[in-house]
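Hi V.,

You were right to ask for the full record rather than a summary. Here it is.
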Amino acid sequence: MQYGYNRFEYYLNKISSLLTEAAGTLNPAFYLAQHDARTPFFMLEGLSRLYSNLHNEKKFEKLKVRFKQIEDALGAIDYYDHVYLNVSADSRVPEEVKEYLQAQSREKIQSLNEILVEEGWMGEEARRISKIHEKLSSAEWLSPETEVEKVEALYHKEIAKIHAQIPEAGNFFTEIELQVHELRRDLRWLSIYPQCLRGMIQYHQNGIADPLTDKYLEQDIVNSPYNIFPDAGNLPVVMLLEQKYFFALSWLISRLGRIKDDGLRLMAVSEAFQHLEKITAENALEKTCALLGKHKSLPDQILLEATLICQTFKSEKILEKLLAGKAMRNK
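Predicted structure:
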């Protein structure tokens, strides 16, 4: 059985259904954004990213670019919509700033509508899905045992990359978008792989108490539906992750998400001022902080908080304790 192919097919079927539904509307891109098409595209991007490290690198790299293009476009729509909703009821924010954010969202929606047709996802010559199936059918899929071994090796590689991104003691993040956001995205892949691999990764609970994880085991993390792994089905072998350390990873992703959102809200409003008033980025940020009643050092405070959280996480060796080997199963 080609387990890898079936994983792609699962999410491709979701996308195919959404595209069919969207095609019957006046604004397909808006429909996709409103119906969470970003998630299956993100899962497919994750699968392509992962499999490009396992085999058929060129084939999966090309697929990753296809999926990422749509996921990024949907992400840009989400970004401006999220910031607009965040400031829409704030009387301190001028109407022209709110209108700018809405205009940016509309522009991103129109851009996605064009991409969907130009890249063959929709329209009279929509063959993108069938072309992807053709590429997947010709891939040299590995055995489940070999896949598990290679995915485990990839986790070790990704963890080392993440640790290298965290500043050493005495140093700090200096960029919200280029550093904090990118680090969070790399951390997210570790939490996304269990979902997109559809059962290949399961929890292991060693029963050993570790006081270091207690502060991370908040109820909204422990009970999150995103931390429930898909059933392993008839897979003969699975990779294991220690549950408490995976929950700690989820906590870090969530906290960095809140920090990132605070920073990006400032950046989006500053972007609007810079565009509308033709002022420098520095002056636009200073004006935004004054408008929202924030000290102009807030961006630095955000970066400091992100730095200290990540440095603590790294010092506790949470990610080194995440992997717990593999387990053979009865077919």
